[in-house]
User: What shape does this take?
Amino acid sequence: MDPIFETQDLWKWFGGTLALSRVSLSLRNPSIVGLVGRNGSGKTTLIGLMVGLLLPTEGIARTLGRATHMLGRTELEQIGYVPDNPVLLHWMTVTQQLDYVASFYPRWDRERERALCGQLELARQVKVSALSAGDLQKLAIVLSICHHPKFIALDEPLSHLDPIVREQFLRFLLDLVAEDGATVVMSSHVLNDVERIVDWVVCLDGGTVVADAALDDLKGEYAEWQIVARNGGLPARFPEAFVLHQDVSSPMARLVVRASEAERMSFESAHHVTVTATPLNLGGMFPYLLKRNVQ
Amino acid sequence: MLLRVDPHSGVPVFRQIVEQIRFHVASGLLAGGDEVPSTRALASDLGVNFMTVSKAYALLEEEGVLERRPGLPSVIAILDRKKAQTSRMDQLRGALQPAATAALQLGVNSKDAAALLRRLIDDPEG
Assistant: This one.
């Protein structure tokens, strides 16, 4: 089966500014992908490339099996997109805006529209111009997923939502993937939200991909180790390349590592120590994902 | 099912599910033949990705803890007595490991630590 989105050695320049470089990705179905990175790392640019709003300067981008400069009706009908700054028709009411967009899609699902407006607590008779930032975001979300898209790209969809609505929306996304077999890409710098639902993580730093892996695999590798010497002291510094950070105060130490179970066991016997490993969550490992880019 | 997961823990959610089901089986809370919820139902209950639950169930099936039945709910497999005892000791070992490390850090020897454990089990009030 074709990947939902793939790039090969993609570069994107805006005039003299390099936004993305050497990006090679292949996102497969069904999945919820968390696109994470600091401000200005290239997340919004990458999402723009996914939905065909931007084209690569060099390299290839393919969405739903087709080069993004060739996306036609068949593909566009299967894409849902929530931009970071939704542009809507301000003189319409919410209902009018929904009817307007629904008219473009033969597969528009009124039932889903009603359910989602209810879950997100979106008032329908209000003018778009009178909506708060949070309600505008909710409307953009409803507009993006009632046509049963196979691929949904969400650029910071939760930034203006309160915790209750955010929870409702995350649960809805999980159902969507289970029911429609859709693939969701969600950018966010709120790592807690990403961690809650994603199974795959793509991390950008300075326009390059520094992590592209299953979240569970990352959690299996990044850990904090509490070290206790079994007899005698500890070296002033541990030389292993998998040690990313260390505080040694013999006979104890605290390390941050990216290591396998086998590496932990050989570390224990080599240094005569007991290791208690606590795996790091996404927030805990995030600074170290970025540091890989520096090294 | 009495499961609780923390999606913000560094322990992958599928592993948390596997460990809790293993513990409930070892403790007898889940017995051989008991039905477990479908992947969809449990995912929705816990508010996690259904693929996460599916991964957990696949691992438990591989270990022989869970039995999948085509078209029917999966059930807890029946363990023989020897396996059940090994499984109980494995669970306890996992729970005691941090305590053993703390004893090492505190310089409490194994004899005193074992005596303390004996007191905690035999006389939890004391």
Remarks:
- The interface with chain B takes residues 30-32, 167, 170-171, 174-175, 177-178, 192, 195-199, 215-216, 219-220, 222-223, 226, 228, 230, 252, 274, 276, 278-281, 283-285 of chain A (CB under 8 Å).
